[in-house]
Specification:
The structure holds two protein chains of two kinds. By secondary structure, chain A is an alpha+beta fold. Chain A is about 30% helix and about 25% strand. The longest helix of chain A is centred in the first third of the chain and has 20 residues. Chain B has one domain: MetI-like fold. The chains are: A alpha+beta, B mainly alpha.
Amino acid sequence: MGTRNHLAPLSIVLVLLVSSACGSDGDRNAYRDDTVTILSLADISKPMPFLSETVLDGGVVGQMYMSILGGVWEDGRLHARTADQDALVLAKAYEFFGPDSTSLRYHLRGDVRWSDGVPLTAHDAVWTLETRADPRVASPRRNYSQFIEQVEAEDDSTLVVHFSRRYPEMLAHSATEVAPRHVFEESDPANLRSHPTLTRPEGGNLVVSGPYMIGEWRRGQRVTLVPNPEFQPQPNIPRVVFQVIPEETTRLIEFQTGNADVLQLPYDKLELVQQSVPDMRIEVRRGRLFEYIAYNPLAHPALADPQVRRALGLAIDREGMIRALSMDGFAEPAGFDFSPIQTLHHDPVAQAPLPFDPDEAARILDDRGWLPGPDGIRIKEGRPLRLVLSTNAGNQRRADIGQIVHQAWSRIGVDAQLQTRESNTFFDALNRKEFDAAIAGWSIALFVDMTSLWEGESLFNFTSFDDPEVSRIMQEALTQPTAEAAAVYWREAAARIVEEQPYSWLFFMDAPVGVRNRIQGTLIDTLGELQNLHEWRIVPAGGGSESAGGGADAVQGGG
Amino acid sequence: MFRFLARRLLGAIPLILGVLTLIFFVMHLAPGDPTSRYFDPTISPEIMEQMRQNLGLDEPVPIQYLKWMGAFLTGDFGYSFSYMRPISEILPEVMWNTLQLTLMSLVVIFGLGMLIGIFQAVRQYSVGDNVLTVVALFFYSMPGFWLALMLILVFSLKASQWGWPVQFPSSQMTSGGYEFMSAPEQFRDRVMHLILPSIALGIGSAAGVARFMRGSLLEVIRQDYIRTARAKGLEERVVIFKHALRNALLPIITILGLTLPFLFSGAVLIEVIFAWPGMGRLIVDAVFQRDYPLIMASSFLIAVLVILGNLLADVLYAIADPRIRSG
């Protein structure tokens, strides 16, 4: 009797397991046919236009909030798109006016409603731009408001923005995604981030204007976007799931087992994935990231000499490094901050990557008085050319770069001791200029302004670069009315910086994104993966194949 | 017993406050702060300074400490800097996620470990004992993260590629479309998601428990009173499970008591690999993001659990061994 009693709960569990194993495949297939699953390294954070923090935030916000203007990357720069070109855009037209064309008037659509049924008007846009500029909010994009003097709504569908001067990014800095004034205007600006609709946005709590809203948010696991019923035309895919998986191997396995449709692939696993997943293609997000080695001239006398820095750069085989990191086809050597995709600013001659020439590197070091010592390490006035090459923990690519550079420098008699530090500690050391040489990376901003990297006291000028002429040229660039006019100055400043070699620029990276072929209509480029998520569509099983989305950048899977 | 417990609990209060004070100052001395994640040339230092002001980080550290301690003593854990939500909302959610995983792994650790240990003790030096010793040592020596990856590789990826009838999910607590499943399907889905992580988390410790159990039981079954029990003609099952096991459990109870904090603190590597949103991941992320209020609240929780775990071990000792109670 006692034994039977003990076995009873076990029997119930077994019956439940067995009966559920016979669950409806039809239901599961129906779910899959209506769902695209995108794998992500991290969760969303602040789903609000001027508060978004992570890359995923940016992509999701772009699908939840309509913006004043849209953008498309063409000819090496961002071009504006109006409502007739892009369903996510509010402005039907815009015009510059006023003295020196320092004001902008946007004519907004009058037929857009928020997901709670309230009409979206120019007053929402005014509130958004004013709140973004409010110092108490501490928006990461407050810099965009630095030249905006006044914002006003002439009527419900006309927005006017007055700038303190004319400059190339007036459109980009004012044509932001718009947030709902009626939801947030009573909130304390300093506590906007903890507004209940932002901390509990699921179930339609978050008021949006774009094609999608947050249907469900299982924190740390997945975010599900569902269509906003007020948005027209309705998006093609009824359910978009962002699945949060921090570990790379687990993400790959989820993709390989067919549980996910979109994944940014690690370079060294591309071949493996292509072989094991035949019904996929690779699309490419063009390079907006570059890696570099920064030198601190205050740390070691050798690093204060531009010729020595040049020698250190010449000793690095960038092509070989790209091959060693399995990034062939997805990276190209860098010679400055401007990527080749920034055709207006990139100068293939003045900003050419340094060649791999260890003999020339050795000759320069000899000339500069750094001569081989008894242990092979170069020495000058009793001081060996021994550096600590540091980088942040948790980035295997940078750790690998460190090994490659260590070997390259040891061949010319430079001893680099590798040091990996916790990220906060590492970046704090860069800020305090307590490093010799550091491997790090930057993401290229869509709107060019190099002053924060290369001007005197800037927090990010780790290399203590200080050239009054370069500063003058950069300030001149900032006052130019058009991107074309400014680019002339930026290129000139770049050429002067390259001569000094404060960094050894290593390479620009593209991001390969694996997309299962059942997902069509994707547009993945410099602006990211999610920019036209509302236009993606799912090809039903057995529904025949179409050409892959992604145009020229798409590569079919193998196998 | 009550007075003993009350004395121990009161004695723990200054210990906990001391631990929290130490953690507070050590964390604030560490480089970086919660605004470090905005480390970007497009974000001006003035904005970061304003963020610090909004979070109250512009005040001297001792003032921040007094404010935090004042709020803490009234039961207010504050807001998480990274989630911008009250910590009293975050911790229960995440603790429940962790509890599901750790309770299941406790079943693996103690259920499996004790069974194996008992089997080995009663079959000492048999082939089974020797094989299980080798197997136990293998799992004991294997790093948990490696084992986790191997389990995923075999029972998820290869099971899918080779068309096995059962494939285990490789990540998260539930499958996509969970909300559209029937109740039995949801139950099965949750159990299936628990199996691989709880094995990865528990099997190494189970091997350890098996070794402890084996050694302890071997010692006990050589005692005179066990020989007497056998001489009385009791069944071997009764001798082992009723007479020997109770006394052999003492070292296992010590381990169980020390395991209590683990129930809530989670296991960061396993949680990361299986994308399990538990306490381990939460605490590590909080440390990396310098989310001071969240670090303090979770440290408090773990400190309390360590003390309660030790207390529980003492109580269980007393239950298992009446001599301790009377002494």
